[in-house]
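Dear all,

This email documents one entry for the complex benchmark we are building for the journal club exercise. For each entry we list the sequence lines for every component of the assembly. Then comes the predicted three-dimensional structure of the complex as a token string, followed by one or two observations. Please use this as the template for your own entries, and keep the labels exactly as they appear.
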Amino acid sequence: MRRFFSLFLVLLLVIAACTPITPRPDELTFPPLAFSLPTVEKTSLVNGTKLYLRQDHELPLIDVTAMVGVGRMHDPAAKAGLCALYAATLRNGGAGSRDGAAVDDLLAQMAGELGVSCDNDALTLHLSIPAEEIDHGLSLLTDLLRHPRFENGRFELARRQKLEAIRRQNDRPTSIAHRLLAEAIYGDHPLGRMASEASLQRIDREDLLVQHDLLMNPENLWLAISGDFDANLLKKKLTTLFDGWNSGGGGLPPLPARSAISSPRLLLVDKPLPQSTILFGELGVDKSSPDLAAIRVMNYILGGGGFNSRLMREVRSNRGLAYSVYSYFRVGRRLPGTFLAGCETRSDATATVIELIRQEMERLRREPVSVEELHLAKESLINSFVFAFTGTHAILTQAMRIDLFGYPSDYLERFREQVAAVTVDDVLSVAQKYLHPERQVLVVVGDTSVFVDALGAEEEVEWVDPQRSLLLP
Amino acid sequence: MMLRCVVRCWPLLLLMFCSSSANALQLEEKVQEHTLKNGLRLLMVERHDAPTVAAYITLGVGSVDEGNENRGVAHLLEHMLFKGTKQLGTVDYRREAPLLAEIEVTAEALSAAKVQTPRNEEEVSRLAAKLSELQEQHRPLVVKDEFSRIYAENGGSGYNAFTSKDLTTYLIELPANKLELWAAIESDRMQNAVLREFYTERNVVMEERRRSRETEPRGLLYEHLLATAFTVHPYRAPIIGWMSDLEHLTLAETRNFLHRYYAPVNTVIALVGDFNPEDAITLVERYFGAIPTGEPVPKVTAVEPPQRGERRVNVVYDCEPQMLIAYRKAPLPDRDDYLFDLAAQILGEGRSSRLYRRLVEEEQLATSVATYGAPGSRYPNLFVISAIPRSPHNAAEVETVIYEELARLGNELVSDEELEQARKQLRVGTLRQLRGNGGLARMLTYYQTVAGDWRYVTRYNEAITSLSAEELQGLARRAFVPENRTVATIGRSGE
């Protein structure tokens, strides 16, 4: 009997081995990935400009990014919008011997693209040109940095465009929600102060000139150039073009103090729409936090991991209540950034979805995540690490930003190791430390008559007119 | 996060694709082609600068291939194809199958009961309760979003899909050592897809519609433009479908669309990145080679009748004014289509373009203006001018200036310098599109699908170089006439 049984087993195994069963995709095995960090040439010109170079001859194109580490958060209290106007007028206001229109004509002749923008932390200029236009391109770049004209007409145009943007800022519910949330979280801090008609009217051309003299000097300038060029030749050209341009006295302006911890608020904006926009938020972390890797893993599980996150699963996949539902930490470079979680859902599901999102945050604070969830989040972050190093210009500007904002030089490499070390307990601990559903700000824009009664009366509801800033008395 | 999106900005992308490269011939040499016996076409470009691969699978079927009875199905199916197969996404498909069948029968009965007159409320609630009970029973048999988990664990990036009027694309970028994983998952998905959790996903798509159309002025305006400019041709309908379409789309229709069109003969795959083409051919042959050829997607037979007068729609919505002006035009590779690319460049691309300079800088009537082709490329389509008026100016003032500039293009010959500059801008614009692995893979599958040959890209430069100023003038005179025009505006008073 025993013998027969073994024979039977053997037979079974033979049959199984002969049946052509396609392996499940997740049972495949793979060769190891050969991967070395790409090299970036870091150097500086004699006048102090930091220069990042990477040659890439695949396509006859050149990309240039110039940055100065001054952004919205340095805007003076009464002049919210200064950095944005400075960026727009630097782009459009003429440079060197050319007025604004002539600069645009030159760009068109070169088939070049030029943009200047300002975010919370920095001013960024990006120029893209075909390789054959390197001389014209570098000379235009130099004129923009050294000899911008800030023409009055173009400055006025920039102001009018910005005013029109303010007029339109309530056209879309998401833009209302994000603006109100920033005002509620940061309050009377540059990151909470939105440009307004009044603040824009207080800015004049003289402010732009002062800003430029103070900030735009080789000491503060970071330059990244990638593409189809010869690096040695390029450095020679730049040295010539930057000749005689030396750093003045202007360091960076002082940072405004960090804002206080936010208090819980429920802000409602009534708009007769078929779908509500829901946005939770609170003050988060800056780059010096020792918990960044654990936060990244925790947020992947909460709402940052797409279809592998709990919010997506509960709200979208299981219940069909949203197309987009997410959470993320914007890690501040200098001051704490924000944690945000949000979604859009049909009006009559608003209260249900708010409750679901809250429950998921509470659950992360209360219960350890499963080993499987932790494993998936870590594997995903670690194995997709290679995508932090794709795209020649992206690699270069990433390396530059790491230095500009003072991250440790091995930040990316170490980050991968730190992710690998995150434990279930770490996730629980950072959830408790950084997610505070009880003191978050919640903004809801939508047809309030449908859902306001279902919200429950735990918080005091504040009705907000989106035409008015929350900061006004 | 734009997962599985209907690409609303697709028309903008199109314009950027519609141009060619300085090193067109180089690209032509770099692309390797292989066609499987079953008709599946594989395009490959090696790039070894980073150890990653972009993999794009494009089916030459989109919302244009829908009829009145199944509008929205191409896009809904794209969502459903993330729900797994007979082996992925399930605890045990044999146990699941009978339950899925019962769910379908109940949901169809509910759908029928809802539209019956007089409506039997008792029956409706009974069926609704039964449906949710069955769905509850089904849930433990589902392994949620398993494709997504496997790709994520293996370091996949940008796992997504998009549906346009003309085609549907499934895309991902992977670490270079994981190419076989992609082949295994995607060939399984092509053959063994199980459309589970259909009724929940249909609700997700309704939320997507509310988000992209019903609370978004730009989307709402665009939707109205198409529904006004086209009367017969399926380009008139939104890719995502109208709300009532979504409420009544059936699982049977969705399954039918899958089995009719998702076949190798309608499929183009592009792989771009760090891999060995010979190995890739072996891999694709092994995983996709046994799939039956299938039937080609039939041509759309509906022909838009000649337009016999200007059409106009004023959408009333709580927002500041925006406007779109569209002229009907021929699709690629008609010579007119190339001429419209030139016109778009000269009129609205960049800050020294004619419309931008006049409207935004000189007269300051608008804060932005743009020109592009829409909504698809396989059938006669539209040349669109979009503009945002600057208060206190209104859409009518902007419109007047646009017509003056269009008339100028018909009255005066474009100078050689302006023509050459526009050509160069189109050429360099294409180069920029080739930069990433994903960008190149997208261009290859796109043109292979809509133009029948990816070499449309590499030969484009030659085509635009042959265009003369006189031809452009002739086109402007022929095309930019009121009876060929549709104007759509949106705002609190409709304009």
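Observations: Residues 101 and 200 of chain A are 24 Å apart (CA to CA). The first helix of chain A runs from residue 2 to 18.
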